[in-house]
């Protein structure tokens, strides 16, 4: 039987409760496929701050690096909101992404027929939406230097950051995006602001250069402001979107809200080699933490992505995805996606039932 | 009788045709209020490139500066898309904003009861949306230095830009936003990425400092990724939004699409003193240029903003806004906002009829 080591990073808010569901689901799906998991629970974010004084303890990163895949719950909360930058929970997450070198963040956003009513968009606009945002995750303005505070020539305080991309960073994320488009409907839209920013001009130039390696993919380019509009106007026009770190942050959240079920959306972050990082798109939702209200499906589906992209265990991944669809088909819903006519209950036990052979 | 000099910058694509409608409307509304206009037509953007080789000729800027207000159509088109940066139509627009020092861009986005069906959002989500995005327009990553192309220590090409704000730039846009919120429903939401970016941390700190001057305004803060989601989830929660140049570019376009009638939305860009710049939110739409299909209402309503914010001519501004509502109430629509049951025709003549005493 196969054995994998998984680092679990529950984090803050609803993180621990959704991770505990996903862990059960992984164990069960694994046992049905002859896979054994060794789980290591490590602190990150606010939980790590409270425990150790820093948001990403060295031990957490080194255990994560040595494992086969990393599953993260959520980080952040009001309690740490006014912390200085190096003591923010978010800084721990950014250090983790950087430390694992996971430069490619895959964020699928699709509208399930069962949940089309949960979208705020009209039914005819929302139904059939099935897109993937490929976000560059370890470069751009998130990590660019110089950054910080200073004073200008008039003695005024300034705050500054650097948006910067090197050609190799663009090339490697472009290749991931072209490959993702190949496996989907063969269409890639690269989003930038090349009419204003030099970093975007290089982005567009490199994406066009890499396109010659993928003649079967239809490439288009769109300015970020227009993309933000088109996602609302007609999200079905998109298959795969590739964009930089900050535009990807904004557009993937917008896209996920368009599906109406942000509590359902997983993500995978991958590097050239080494363990991938898998996490739900949603935040730590401190206001509902510990009340058994959180939708665990985004984390459960992140565990499925972990099996597929992180371990190559396609059968186990599909087992989980099928169980999620079964649960929804039977009318099980958490409050965030509940509408009249559904059975409303916490989903964890139901999963375990569905997954039984 | 009062006399004002207005610089008209038709620009590219549908720019000239919508400017010509707005000019007629200004003349008529003015004549009914005892106001005379002297119009000066000047080239900008692609039109200026074709004529003079540069996107903002010196004469255009100096005439604009000497006038009482500037009305712009739209700039850009496929023809110039691959131009080098200093020869892009967009560069002319940025130089114009910088040259006129119009740092505050007001972008109202409201859903008119007559047009609620034009939104892709469900009726109960879209109806009653009435928000104003106050975008910083002459700072941030659009203008920050250093910027350009270079090579890194490994000889790889890099492209880079600087996101930078000085405290005075934040203070002055914050004051405009607080004042705008005071005149509206008294709520201001400042959007930033203060969990990651130093430029945003300073932004948040200064907005909080300025808040003490406006105790009657209720201030909140939101991260930009969350704001992009909340605009889709529940746009009615917003009254006034204030944000930086690039986030404002993205969010104001998203907000305008939520109204479903981007062909209807005006904008005003104001400085400390000197003429304001008024322009529709929409682009140059080269694919429908010259076909009498463009919706002129965004430019007509920009002319109303010009009268109100640029010249202090409230009565004439209201005359135009009332005429627009009358035209819509009578069922007149351009194709972009047309739905069954409406009279569909080009609106210019109808305006002139409505405005007659
Ligand atoms: C928490 C924050 C630092 C993070 C980001 O901006 O990347 C989050 O918004 C995300 O998208 O994963
Ligand atoms: C044309 C472009 C430079 C411009 C901008 O990014 O500011 C436009 O998108 C706008 O919002 O007015």
TrEMBL record, chains A, B:
GO terms for molecular function: 3-isopropylmalate dehydrogenase activity; magnesium ion binding; NAD binding. Keywords: Amino-acid biosynthesis, Branched-chain amino acid biosynthesis, Leucine biosynthesis, Magnesium, Manganese, Membrane, Metal-binding, NAD, Oxidoreductase, Transmembrane, Transmembrane helix. It catalyses: (2R,3S)-3-isopropylmalate + NAD(+) = 4-methyl-2-oxopentanoate + CO2 + NADH. Residues 5-352 form the Isopropylmalate dehydrogenase-like domain. Its EC number is 1.1.1.85. InterPro entries: IsoCit/isopropylmalate_DH_CS, IsoPropMal-DH-like_dom, Isopropylmalate_DH. Pathway: Amino-acid biosynthesis; L-leucine biosynthesis; L-leucine from 3-methyl-2-oxobutanoate: step 3/4. Its cofactor is Mn(2+); Mg(2+). The chain crosses the membrane at residues 337-356. Binds 1 Mg(2+) or Mn(2+) ion per subunit. SUPFAM superfamilies: Isocitrate/Isopropylmalate dehydrogenase-like (SSF53659). GO terms for biological process: L-leucine biosynthetic process. NCBIfam families: leuB (TIGR00169). Catalyzes the oxidation of 3-carboxy-2-hydroxy-4-methylpentanoate (3-isopropylmalate) to 3-carboxy-4-methyl-2-oxopentanoate. The product decarboxylates to 4-methyl-2 oxopentanoate. Homodimer. Belongs to the isocitrate and isopropylmalate dehydrogenases family. This is 3-isopropylmalate dehydrogenase. It comes from Nyssa sinensis.
